[in-house]
Amino acid sequence: MVHSALLNVMVKAARKAARGLIRDFGEVEKLQVSMKGPANFVSAADKRSEETLKTELLTARPGYSFVGEEGGKIVGTDQSHTWIVDPLDGTTNFLHGIPQFAISIGLEREGTLIAGLVLNPVTDELFLAERGKGAFLNDTRIRVAARKNMGEAVLACGLPHYGRGDLELFRREFSVIQEKVAGLRRFGAAALDLAYIAAGRFDIYWERNLSPWDLAAGTLIVREAGGYVTDLDDKDDMFVKGHVAAGNPVLHGELLKILKEASKG
Length: 265
Ligand code: IPD
Ligand code: CA
Ligand code: CA
Description:
Elements lengths: L4 H27 L7 H22 L3 E5 L3 E3 L3 E12 L1 H5 L6 E8 L2 E9 L4 E6 L4 E3 L2 E3 L11 E4 L9 H12 L4 E3 L4 H9 L5 E4 L4 H13 L3 E3 L7 H4 L2 E4 L1 H15 L2
Parallel strand pairs: 1-3, 9-10, 9-11
Antiparallel strand pairs: 1-2, 3-4, 4-5, 5-6, 6-7, 7-8, 11-13, 12-13
Helix pairs in contact: 1-2, 4-8, 5-6
Bound molecules: D-MYO-inositol-1-phosphate and calcium ion (2 copies).
One calcium ion binds next to β3.
């Protein structure tokens, strides 16, 4: 498939960073059995991935601004364009040798998402979208699932981390939702959760306490696949609030209703 120049830039950067992550993931698998464990090694792998992405993206588009999870913010001369990058989404999976992690690159122009890429280096699944041009998985057009019945839906979620987030609220939401759906999954890489919504693998997804780099690319990919992505008040403030709900228009609406009820206690 012929990509636009912009997507080519993103794919080239992601593939280069992916080669480094694959190499490091191989090492991590070996380090599982050592007493020291792979934690420091993984944090270095994460930083290396961000350096590669930053260098590639800013060389190809000098002046663009850059926000990466590991390196904070670079304000470029062109402040209307911002790369929003998670160099390794699913760090805990990576650390444990679980091949469910991704590189996530979003691009915003004047506050509007215009391009998104999510790449799982191990499975080599590349999810791509450009505003107004649809969403793709390895060059095949993807759409959100058409299921309209909650009872048939597979739902993905996040879990509050220890000491962070409202565990009681989550438990209330979880106990209500669990009874209504066909299956629940917690895969541990938000960018891939969104990409799986776009590909129709998951039907709905919700999570709290996320950051723009978890969400930017996946949000555009879901929307270009015909899905809805909002915060939990059905607004577009996910980056500010850090809360997200995604799915096809019908189940997305259902999910928000259920969450609202559950939050009342
Ligand atoms: C995390 C993953 C995870 C989500 C966390 C995120 P990281 O990102 O996306 O699925 O539940 O809240 O922080 O730390 O692995 O880049
Ligand atoms: Ca992340
Ligand atoms: Ca990360």
